[in-house]
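Subject: DUF1616 domain-containing protein

B.,
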Amino acid sequence: MSSIADELFESRDLLAVGGLVAVSVVTIAVGTNGVVRLPPAVLLLLVLPGYVTAAFAYAEREREPWTFTTLVERFALALGGSLAILPLLAIVVYLAVGALTTWGLVGLVAGYVVVVAGATTVRRAGRSGGSDHWAGPARSRTGRSSSGPFPGSLTPLTAVLAVSMILAVGALGAAVTVPADGETATDLHLLTEQEGRLVANEYPSALTQDESAAITVGVTNDEHRSVEYTVVTELQRVRLDGRSVVVTDKRRIDQHGFELAQGESWRESEEFRATLAGENVRFVAHLYRGDPPENPTADTAYRTTYVWFDVQPSPASGE
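Prediction pasted inline below.
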């Protein structure tokens, strides 16, 4: 019992790390704004990776009790190590999924922390014991005999650490599966047809009044659940007032309601006539989850995108 108690005492910081990973991931997932999510995000991304890395590196050295000096030293090592490790993990996420996503980075960092914490526990269990926490590279090892039968058999400490790692990974999986409000990934885009292909360029830049044109509106759902959408398309004439855009006239083109499951896409070619003349005319697509209001605007829409073009008056028009 004394040996088990010693192991638990020596690695209680790593048990705390497992709990902090779970709490941080859940808080990031359920936090409704940046103020709530910032502290756990800083802890998870900028402190814990460096802490467990340094703990692993010095697992076979004697560890000293917490003092102000050692606290400053360990925080500096944790922060510096995290700043060195985080870009490497970000590169791994980018190469794995083709984009640097929030939950991709959070998931990889959380996994890295719990795996390295577990590996550190293994090294500590197989070495000579020491005092409370790891010191820096200047500390020397003073030893007593290795405690417990590890690695030949599973110690209670290893089982406790394994459970904490499972809980942390489970919390991460639940948070990723059910993203928080505001952490959404619906893509609204506009395309044009060029040589039989839909491309995100070559939009019409100049039209004559009453001339016809076509723009394809696309929506892709990546919100990890089925969503009912409504797309409202309009032709708008606007006035630029400093940094503000004031809509002076608009004409409804069409409205479409549809439902998309996770990963599904919807596209519709919108043919319209340039009934509004002026230099600041735009084709606008408003996206809503559910039904739109009677007067759709960019402020009320879930997503809004647009294409600018000039519309010259036709010879027969007096506008």
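The chain has two domains: 2-177, 187-312.

T.
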